Amino acid sequence: MAIPKTMEAPFTHLFLNLTVMTLGQILVIPVALLVVYICIRIGSIRRQFRDLPKPPHHAFLGHFPILLRELRTLPRDIFAPLVVDLVRRKFDLPAVFFLDLYPLFNPIVFISDPGLARKITQEDRSLRYPGVFETLYPAIPTRWFRTVADRAWTKWHPVVGVSFTAAHFVRMVPQMAEDLRAMLDQLNDWSDRDEIFCMERVATDAILAMTGRAYFGMELDCFAPKSQWTSAFRAATTPVVAARNPLRKPFVLPSWKRHARTFHAVIREKVQHTFDKDENHEAGVPSLLASSFAVYRKNGFPEFPRVSQEALSTEYLEELTSTGAAFLIGATSGASVISYAFLLLHQHPNILDDLRREHGQVCGFNRQSILLALQSRPRLLNDLKLTHAVLKETLRLFPMGPVLRKCPSETMEYEGRTYDIRNHIVAISHNSLHRRPDLFPNPDAFNPYRFLPGAAIPIPADAWRPFEKGNGYCVGQELAMIQMKVMLLLTLTEFDFQPKYAREAARGPDIYGGYAYTTGSGIGPTPAGGLPMRVDKRMK
C-alpha cells in the first residue's frame, strides 16, 4: 500500500535520525575500544616501573608530572637533560635510574656510572640510538648517516681513515692561527666601539674557519663582511631548531632543503677546487683532503675506484662533500664550550691570571710573539697544561648532553641486580656523571687544577667522557681541543671579556650557568642568548 504524501516527510525525517544515531553508535564502539586499549597499554607500561629506581611516579601519567613541575620553575628553553639532572639531584637518585615517558618515548634508563658506561660503549660496543643525528638532515646529507652506521667506517673512510691524527692536526696550527687575525681585528673594533656581541657566534665563525683550514687547506674568509661560507652555513643550520617541532617541520623543510643544497654545492665546489689546485698530487699545504687525494691517486680506496688521473669520481666527490658538511657542522659544537670557557674565566680571575702566565711563559706575551712561536714550533700547544685542563673542566661542567644508545642486550647488571632493558633507550648522562661528588669532589665548582698532571686526587677511569668512547665516539676531539687552545691563546693575551645580559633576561640555575644557562636552541646545547659579551683591550 502506498504511503500518502502527507506522511512521506515525517517518515523520511525519522529514517534519517535513526541512521545518524546508528552511525554514531557504531563510531562510539571502536573509539571506546581504542580508549580502553590505550588505558590498558599505559597501565601495563607503568607497572613495569613499579620496583625500579626512579623519581616519584604517577600510576597513569608516569614521569610527566614530576618533569612538568620542575619545568615550571625553569626557563622554557632550558636544555632538557638539565631538567632530568635536577630531578636526579632533588631525589638523590642512584647512578642507574629509569624514566617513564610513554607514549612519547620508549622507557629510558639513565646511567652515570663510569664502569657501566665503559661496558656499554667499549666492551659491548653498543650503537647509537636510531635517529639521534638524523634531525640534522638535510643540513647533513643522508649519505653521511649511512656511512657512520657502518661499525668499521673509521678504518675505510677516505678522510678519517687516512690522516685523522693529532700529529697531523698540529701541522695545521700555524695556518689556523693566521686565519684568526681577522677575528682579533674584529674584537679590537668592537672594543673601540664598546659594542656588545654574541660570543657563541664569534666562536662558531672561528671554529668554522679553523675546520675549513684543516679540511681544505685554504682560508674560508669566515670573518669577511659578506662571507659566502658563514651565510651558507647559517642558512643550512638555522632551521634545525624549528624543524624539531613535528608540527612546524613540514613548513620549514622545503626552504631548508634548498639552503642545504646551496651549502653542499659550496662545499662540493671547494673540494673540486682543492683537488685541481693540488698540483704536485701529493705534497703541499697540509690538509685532510690533500692526504686523501694522495691515496686516491694511487687507487688506494677500493670503495672509491679512480676514474682517471685528473678527475674525481662522482662517488668519491659526494663522499667528501657529505663528510665536509658533517665535519663543519659537528665541529661548531665546540663554540658553546669555548664560550663557556670565557665565561668561567671571567668569573674566576685568579685562574685567568694563571692561564695568562702560562701563555706568556710558553708562547710569549703579545700577538706577534705567539704567532711566531706557533709558526716555528706548533707543538708548543702540548706544553699548555693548564689551558688543556681549563678546557677539560669546561667540558666536564658543560658537556654536549647524554649519548643515547641501543640496548646492548636484553638485561643489564648493576650492583648485584639484573634489570630488564628490552626496548629501552640507554642514556649515558654526562651531565650527571660529571657532577658526581664521589668522582669529582666539589663537582659544581670550576677547578681546572684537578686535571693537571700529578693532581692530588686522580680522575677515576672513564669518569670524564664528553667526547664519548666506543662506537659513535667523536672522531674530531683532537682537532677540537687544538682549535680551542689556539683561540684561548690568541684572545686572552689581548682582551678581557665580560657577560652582558639584560637584567630582565631569564635566569637558570647558577650551577648550570645562571643567565648563561644551557638551551636547546641551537644545533646542539647553546648558552642562552648566544652569551652576549663586551670585550675590552687589556691594559699593558
Question: How would you explain this protein's 3D organization?
Answer:
It comes from Penicillium ochrochloron. Its cofactor is heme. It is an enzyme of class 1 (oxidoreductase). This is Cytochrome P450 monooxygenase ptmG. Heme binds at residue 474. By secondary structure, this protein is of the alpha+beta class. The chain has a domain at 124-399 and 434-493: Cytochrome p450, CATH 1.10.630.10. It is 51% helix and 8% strand. It is built from 22 helices and 11 strands. It has helices at 5-47, 64-71, 80-90, 114-123, 142-148, 153-156, 160-163, 166-170, 173-179, 181-193, 199-216, 228-237, 239-243, 249-277, 288-297, 314-331, 334-347, 349-363, 367-376, 385-397, 430-433, 477-492; strands at residues 96-99, 108-111, 196-198, 403-405, 411-414, 417-420, 425-428, 495-499, 518-519, 526-527, 532-537. The strands form 4 sheets. A 4-stranded mixed β-sheet has the order 1-2-7-4. A 3-stranded antiparallel β-sheet has the order 3-11-8. The protein has a two-stranded antiparallel ribbon with strand order 5-6. A hairpin with an 8-residue loop joins strand 1 and strand 2. The termini are far apart. The model has no long low-confidence stretch (mean pLDDT 91).
Please name the defining characteristics of this protein:
alpha+beta; four-stranded mixed β-sheet; Cytochrome p450; 540 residues; 11 strands; three-stranded antiparallel β-sheet
